[in-house]
Amino acid sequence: MSRTRLLSFLLLGLLGSFAVRGFGDQPCRSGLQSGQRPGPYSALVATGPLRGQSHCFICETEDRPAVIIFARNLSEPLGKLAHQLDQALTQHKQAALRAWITFLSNDQTSLDPKVVEWSKQHATGNLPLAVFEDLDGPPAYRLARDAEVTVLLSQRQRVVANFAFRQGELTEERVREILRALSTLVANKK
Amino acid sequence: MGSLRLTSWLTLALLGLPALATAAPVHATLGNVRSIHLPYCGLMPSKITPNLCVVKYPITTTSKECQAFFDQGLGYFYSYVWMEAARSFETAVRKDPDCPMAWWGLNRALERYKGNHLAALKKAQELLPRASHRENLLITARLQERGLLPGVGNPDARKLAAIKTLDTLLALYDDDEEGWYYRAQLAGGAGLFGGQVSAVPFYKALLRVNPLHPGANHELVHFYENFRRPALGWPYAENYITSSPGIPHAFHMQAHLATRLGRWDKTSDRSSRAIDLERAYHRDMNVKPPDDFQYSHHLETLMRSLTHDGRFQEAHELKKECEHLNFKQYEPWFRLHIAERHWDEALQIAAEYRKKTDKQTAAYMAALVYLCRGEPERAAPEVAVLQEAYQRGRSNKTLENRLSETQGLLQCQQGQVDAGLKLLARLVARTKDDYSHHAWGNGAYYMEAWGIAALKAGRLDAAEEAFLEALAHDPGCFHAALGLQILCEQQARTEEALRYAELAQRCWRRAAPSDVSAEFLALQKPYHEARRDQP
């Protein structure tokens, strides 16, 4: 390999690492921001008593505190968050907390049995899981294509916190961060 | 024996119809020209249609043709094509008059179609010694259920006896598809159209034996629609189509679920396929379309779907065919004409109702046309007719909804916007959880009306609420997506506007561009400008 070629490779490598770092430094931005109103949308419910129905969770939430999650895949880290939320639903029953996960997919029929299985694996018996049949999600939510998971905390029909994660960004620390924000949300409710 | 009668006997002998000589069916008038018809169903014999249905149930016969017609009969039977099921089973009987299961199949088909079904069952009973053990149990269960065995008692006792026989059959032969299907029928599926929830475990057991059983898949599509969980019926709708690639009804059935789920592309494409198959069937079997009791319903479904998707030209062609066949589908035609802004044709339909002395429907339709044209003065007397009728019959929910819709729109156009929108919002609240109203994609209809009125009256908050509701109820609602696009553009919400524009484009991707533009312009125009444009 000639010296010029080697230099070119090194330069490319350096540029690449800058690019990756630069990308990583910018937090993922996806979905409604604080103060915005989460609008109604329906998704096909995969688990729980509403299984098989098209349902609008936002509509029934009204002013109650809620955790609204949009996800593109059935990942392990999301499973951990889902499990914690499932427990939170029981824990914060008095605060009338609502939470659900909406998976974005163009093929609900194929995804449905996988969602059911994933729900069993992560013991999310109380947390409704649903599928929205459009990879872009409900247009009003402006979900980013590169956002693997978007978490919105809302109360009185306004978003109060927004968390968005690209693939691999939803770590245990970030899950704890969401749960801390959730504790604040339900504490305010009380 | 007279010469005519002798000739008939000779003809029968030549046709190789020994069964006819022994049977005593209603249609077996041997002395007339109808003797060439099958005696039980009164139809010409069937012929094998390749790739009709994958279902196969081997029966005791040495005749391959009998087996083929029996299987074909099952395929038709499970799709509620009673006439062809009867014709196929009776042709199977003709191929092997000693085949007990062919008579058993004929009994089932005639019971749904017409003809002496008990005579066919008695024939199966006579032939019981020729049946295999499983077949014997199937036929015995049928004889018990129909009270043709001595000492089985009242209908409840007969049913219990039949269940016991079938349970024995399934205990011995758990792969018996007909046993499982029949068991499901006795468990609550006898009324068809999905039956009761108690039938479902049996249909699912049958699908474990044969995932492509057309009967189980078809029933489960109906069941999950009626059970208000259309998404759960979808895999069965897909498998039903795979099981019955040559049967129109299988393609049509998906629309029952697709229109509720907003999967309109599937509705139109599959409904079109159903119609193509049906036309071929009419040609091949020399069947008059009005004799095909499913055809009118299938055409209507396609008409609604094409209208929803803005495919007006194709919908018009379909209307012509319906008119030619004397299928009068005024309501979907009216919706088509309103959608394509063919006001005169829409008014003609209103006039048809007036002729039929259905003055309420006529007034409702005429009011809608005038309101769509932005002519509140002409709409007002029609709305008054509805008001007057409502004073006399307040329990009539259809009338109440029609009045709310037209009165709300009228008030918006007359400047009483708050009152009008309130009326429309109430109408939506009243109907949004009405599952039967939501059939055939109707769920977003009033929401659309509310949203359009609010948008044109400049009440953007109400319009947004209405259109979002509409999309939540019908993800394929073009007018809601377009309305939200316009609304977001007016509020400089560029990114959202683009997303809604894409959605609207997807919803009407097969519509004529001129129709899309016309809708855009109409929705964009506020009421006061629309009125200024009036001649």
Write the layout of secondary structure elements.
The complex is a heterodimer of chains A (190) and B (535).
Chain A: H1 3-25, E1 43-45, E2 54-55, H2 57-61, E3 66-71, H3 76-91, E4 98-104, H4 108-121, E5 129-132, E6 149-155, E7 158-165, H5 172-189
Chain B: H1 3-15, H2 18-22, H3 64-77, H4 82-95, H5 100-112, H6 117-126, H7 133-145, H8 155-172, H9 177-189, H10 200-209, H11 214-226, H12 230-243, H13 248-261, H14 264-285, H15 295-308, H16 312-325, H17 330-339, H18 343-355, H19 359-372, H20 376-392, H21 397-413, H22 417-431, H23 445-456, H24 460-473, H25 478-490, H26 494-507, H27 513-524, H28 527-532
Name the descriptors.
heterodimer; A: 190 residues; alpha/beta; seven-stranded mixed sheet; globular; B: 535 residues; mainly alpha; 28 helices; elongated; disordered N terminus
